[in-house]
């Protein structure tokens, strides 16, 4: 007996993501996950907290010197994160 309504697990998961409108949240998670790759291990080690709210990445660091350096690289960080996730995941970064 064959089931003509069969779908792959991947297509079912994609359908659930679409139905529950989870695409943007998954993109945010991917953007947060790529932070160490984008900024490197040394800066990632000094990162205390990361969160995204309305396409703004909030970064809390434990070093004022690193914070000041990253302010100058803000546009490059935004570009590289969006490139990594292949989407316009963030539009601004605020360092704290």
List the helices and strands and how they pair.
Layout (H helix, E strand, L loop, with lengths): L8 H11 L3 H11 L1 H5 L1 H5 L1 E7 L2 E6 L2 H9 L1 H12 L6 E4 L1
Parallel strand pairs: 2-3
Antiparallel strand pairs: 1-2
Task: Describe this structure as you would to a colleague.
The protein is 55% helix and 18% strand. It starts with 8 loop residues before the first helix and ends with a strand. The protein is of the alpha+beta class and 96 residues long. A three-stranded mixed sheet has the order 1-2-3. It has a single domain, classed as GMP Synthetase, Chain A, domain 3, CATH 3.30.300. The radius of gyration is 18 Å and the shape is elongated. It has helices at 9-19, 23-33, 35-39, 41-45, 64-72, 74-85, and strands spanning 47-53, 56-61, 92-95.
């Amino acid at each position: 007996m064959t089931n003509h309504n069969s779908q792959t697990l991947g297509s079912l998961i994609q359908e659930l993501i679409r139905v529950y409108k989870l695409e943007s949240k998954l993109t945010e998670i991917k953007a947060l996950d790529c932070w160490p790759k984008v900024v490197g291990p040394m800066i990632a080690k000094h990162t205390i907290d990361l969160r995204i709210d309305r396409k703004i990445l909030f970064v809390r660091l434990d070093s004022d010197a690193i914070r000041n350096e990253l302010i100058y690289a803000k546009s490059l960080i935004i570009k590289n994160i969006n490139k990594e996730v292949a989407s316009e995941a963030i539009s601004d970064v605020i360092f704290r």
